[in-house]
Write a structure and sequence with these properties.
541 residues; alpha+beta; ibrinogen binding protein from staphylococcus aureus fold; 9-stranded antiparallel sheet; 7-stranded antiparallel sheet; 23 strands; 35% helix; elongated
């Protein structure tokens, strides 16, 4: 559900309490989301601005965010002009769906400059525009040339023009409304949802009282609808009887958290899925061709037999024959194809040469099939890991593909070692930790875990490595760990999934293999029907 102008008015009213807001860092978490790490009221938090066409919004959030390793040109421009600046004023005009943030920041010469940041949350036209003190656009998240919009060009250097005004009445000051016509067309900041709620309340209340309740509200009222929310500044009584009342900033953070995360994952994962699927298709084709070559190579004994039989022919120098029928050593007639340009003897030598090539090639082809099948297995594992990845996990997988050359590597200025994320839960005094991709699994098993920890992994399935900080965990903990290993694997929808477990000291890296591949000994096996254990409080560490 998108914001309407009235809701944005209350968001602005709430944000004003936090002014001035100092901009510490600027990050891009997806193609449509910009996050300012800010300092306000003596605390650090994040100002999240999302410009997705379906769920664009603006709110303060206490959550941490991972940014792209290669920021866009627009983000670099924002950093150049706005870092360490202060948002000191926020304006809204006619309850429309955009805010103008006034920002003071210092340039390279330490001169104080004024900038405008137009935060436009207008559905598919959502945009973020940086404007200089000469009222010229410096840059924008989404650029719009003149041939797309003749009334409002959004390009660097163009004059900044506010979105078109709508000749509507102020709903907080007017009582002149026509109930026979659409309130959305008559009143500023109204959406269809708010109109339906107002019309429903007009049965028992006056329009002025309803608008006063909206003006006096400082909360957001949420109504759960399947996996999403309907919300407004007042309860939506025409749709629901129950509601959740929250602080405006916290409410928006809750509403859009999952949508934002899905969008961030989609933006980074789309390219990763393409690479993985392309590689899977490549190895499927390669294995098929190699197996066809192997099948041909397995007929090498027939080539040797043909050479032997041709040498028994009475006229070895004869040419021009396309086929020769000759009895084999058991008296059965054999038909042998010949090259008419060559003599019978030369054809026999040709069959011998083919035999030698196939004999040597058979070993090579078998080796190549084994390599290709391992590569295919590796990409199948990555595909499964992408299916359960959050944003941080997807970044790990991206780093892995960059490391092995499957993605084009861009030169990065920041070469600091990246922190590896792991997942953890604590039960009955035990600490259980697990990874969800190859990099996390490898780090968990060979860097994080102690030698006396117990290690779990779903047998014959790609999936998570799980460790518990004990060499003799209880039966309950063994079953919980085994369930995690099975659930976060390709076998999560299967039943009676075998899970192997042993001490970490029994693990061994496979030389030359990709991360996450291990061998082990002295292990036990338990069978589990995987399920999502919602009672576990899993945190990222």
């Amino acid at each position: 559900m998108a914001l309407d102008g009235i809701t944005l008015y209350k968001v602005r009213e709430d944000l004003i309490k936090y002014l001035p807001i100092r901009i510490n860092r600027i990050a891009e978490t997806s193609k449509t989301e910009v996050v300012f790490n800010v300092h306000t009221n003596g605390e650090r938090c994040n100002l999240v601005m999302n410009f997705h066409s379906n769920f664009n919004h603006l709110c303060l959030s206490e959550r941490s965010f991972s940014s792209y390793s290669d920021p866009s040109t627009f983000i670099m421009v924002l950093r150049k002009y706005l870092l360490n600046g202060f948002i000191y004023q926020i304006d809204q005009f006619d309850y429309d769906r955009f805010l103008i943030m006034h920002i003071k920041a210092r340039n390279e010469l330490y001169d104080e400059k004024e900038y405008l940041l137009s935060v436009e949350l207008m559905g598919k036209y959502a945009n973020l525009i940086l404007v200089g003190d000469d009222n010229r656009i410096i840059d924008a998240l989404k650029k719009i040339p003149p041939y797309e919009n003749t009334r409002r060009t959004i390009l660097p250097g163009a004059e900044f023009v506010l979105p078109d005004k709508q000749n509507k009445k102020d709903p907080f000051t007017t009582d002149d409304i026509d109930l026979s016509d659409s309130l959305v067309k008559q009143l500023q900041g109204f959406s269809r949802l708010l109109e339906d709620e107002v019309r429903f309340r007009l049965k028992n209340d006056s329009f002025r009282n309803i608008m006063n309740k909206i003006r006096e509200s400082h909360s957001l009222f949420l109504h759960k609808k399947n996996d999403s929310y309907d919300f407004h500044i007042i309860p939506l009584t025409h749709l629901y009887d129950d509601f959740l009342e929250m602080d405006i900033q916290e409410g928006f953070d809750l509403i859009y958290r999952e949508d934002d995360e899905k969008e961030r994952i989609r933006n980074i994962s789309d390219d990763l899925y393409k690479v993985v699927k392309r590689q899977l298709k490549h190895y499927d084709t390669k294995i098929l061709k190699l197996k066809n070559s192997l099948e041909d190579a397995l007929n090498l004994q027939n080539d040797k037999l043909c050479g032997d039989l041709l040498y028994t022919y009475e006229d070895l120098d004869q040419k021009g024959l396309k086929e020769l029928k000759i009895a084999d050593f058991e008296g059965n007639e054999q038909s042998i194809k010949l090259d008419p340009k060559l003599s019978v003897k030369a054809n026999a030598n040709k069959y011998y040469n083919t035999y030698q090539k196939k004999r040597k090639g058979k070993v090579y082809i078998e080796e190549q099939i084994e390599i290709a099948e391992k590569e295919k297995e590796y990409f199948e594992a990555l595909n499964e890991q992408l299916n359960i990845a959050n944003y941080a996990d997807a970044l790990d997988i991206k780093d892995e593909l960059l490391r092995y050359g499957y993605l084009k590597k861009h030169q990065q200025k920041n070469t600091r070692k990246k922190k590896v994320n792991l997942y953890q839960t604590k039960i009955d005094g035990y600490t259980i930790t697990f990874g969800k991709n190859n990099i996390q699994n490898s780090f968990l098993s060979f860097d994080y875990a102690h030698s006396n920890y117990t290690w779990f992994h779903a047998k014959q399935f790609h999936g998570s490595h799980v460790v518990v900080d004990s060499d003799k965990p209880s039966e309950k903990i063994i079953r919980i760990c085994a369930n995690l290993a099975a659930y976060y694997s390709k076998g999560r929808y299967s039943s009676s999934v075998p899970v192997d477990y042993c001490l970490v000291k029994e693990l061994k890296k496979v030389k030359g293999s990709k991360p996450g591949f291990v061998t082990f000994r002295n292990y036990h096996t338990i069978y589990i029907d995987p399920y999502e254990d919602k009672e576990l409080e899993i945190t990222s560490i």
